Amino acid sequence: MGLINYNIEKYSPQQLVVIPLVLFIISLVVLAFTIVATGMPVTPGIDFSGGTAVTIITSDSREQLQTTFAGYPLSEISDMNNGKFLKFSSMDDTRYQSLSQLISQKYPDAKIDQIGESFGKSLQSQAALALIFSFIGMAVVIFLTFRTFVPSVAVVFSALADMVMTAAVMNIIGIPLSLGTTAALLMLIGYSVDSDILLTNRVLKRQGKLNDKLTGAFHTGMIMTSTTLAAVAALFAVSWFGSVQILMEISAVLLIGLVADILNTWLTNVGILKWYVQKGGGK
Question: Closest by alpha carbon to 255, among 174, 196, 170?
Answer without folding.
Answer: 170
